[in-house]
Amino acid sequence: MKFEPDAYDAVLFDLDGTLYHEERPIPAAVELVHRLRGRGTKVGFLTNSTSSPARIAERLARMDVRVDPQFVYTAGAAAVDLAMNQFGPAARIFNCSTDGVAEMLSDAGAVAVNEPDAPCDAIIVGAPYNGFATEERRRTALYLLRGGAALVGICADRIFPSARGMEFGAGALCAMLAYAANVTPVFAGKPEPEFFTNLCKRLRADPARCVLLGDNLESDVAGARRVGMDTILVLTGVATREDLLNIPDDKRPGRVVQDCFELM
Q1: pLDDT tens digit string along 62-75?
Q2: How far apart are alpha carbons 82 and 105 in whole angstroms?
Q3: CB burial class (10 A; 0-12, 13-18, 19+) of residue 259?
Q4: Within 10 Å of residue 248's Cβ, how many Cβ atoms?
Q5: Domain contains 163
Q6: In degrees rounded to 5, what are phi and psi of residue 120?
Q7: Low-confidence winner among 49-58, 156-165, 205-214 (lowest mean pLDDT)
Q8: Does any domain span residue 59?
Q9: Which domain, by its residues, includes 83?
Q10: Read out DSSP for 194-250?
Q11: 116 lies in the same domain as 195
Q12: Contact criterion met (CB below 8 Å) for 53 and 69
């Protein structure tokens, strides 16, 4: 089946597992982006990364994909947006994620919380290996949650692919803290509907006339389908053909390709 990008307002790319593995572009993915842009197709990028859109744009530039950061939406940026919108311009936030989130919180005017007995509005949680998610800071997060702070998960990813293999995702650490503190988390990134629709607004595209290329059945396919997008699953990241055997309808992609070569 030929890929017909002219049928869509925009083509959205997931990043980790779809366009690249860390600093290594996945074969044919960058070429597909160039081909789409060459024919005038709008292209956007979304990721459950904790990095800022500016940092992701810099990474993409190193792979010969130059993009305005406004057309990159990260779960880290979405988590900061969520916390600041809910708790106001001087929100007191404990960062249990990355320096990228710390940078975005500082830029947004948040008050950094670092002590377990300090007043705290919310905790932002990323993947467990990140620099702001040390064992000591996880323990601080637990105390703050038990003291009434809200738990904001950057995303609900159980795992994500890296050059080393599969890694524990932000959702895994968030689930541990939520269980220990007996609280219910809210999530900012994929598969939350607002995450997809916010990027579509920036692209001036109707979600129902967009297609998402992604590698994860839960965060990419299910999330995009919830807002009416078409979906293409690429088998270069999390999902395998075996995963497709017994999946529910809401996670079933419109099309499955081995890699982006099939869409060229």
Answers
A1: 999 999 999 999 99
A2: 11
A3: middle
A4: 8
A5: yes
A6: -145, 130
A7: 156-165
A8: no
A9: 78-187
A10: HHHHHHHHHHT--GGGEEEEES-IIIIIIHHHHTT-EEEEETTSS--GGGGTT--GG
A11: no
A12: yes
Question: What confidence score (pLDDT) does residue 224 get?
Answer: 98
Q: Which amino acid belongs to residue 168?
A: F
Over the stretch 167-191, which tens digit does the pLDDT of each residue have? 899 999 999 999 999 999 999 999 9
CA gyration radius, the chain? 18
Residue with tokens 């307002």: 9
**Residue 39: pLDDT band by 50, 70, 90 thresholds?**
very high
Count: domains in the chain: 2
DSSP H helices in the chain:
29-38, 53-62, 75-87, 99-108, 135-146, 170-181, 193-203, 223-226
Domain end (from 133, 167, 187): 187
Tokens 């001036």 label which residue?
Answer: 204
Give the global pTM. 0.91
pLDDT at 162 over 90: no
Classify burial at 69, counting beta carbons within 10 Å of its beta carbon; exposed 0-12, middle 13-18, buried 19 or more.
Answer: middle
Q: What is the CATH number of the domain that holds 43?
A: 3.40.50.1000
Are 181 and 197 contained in the same domain? no
- pLDDT at residue 116 is higher than 90: yes
* Tokens found for residue 115: 């002590």
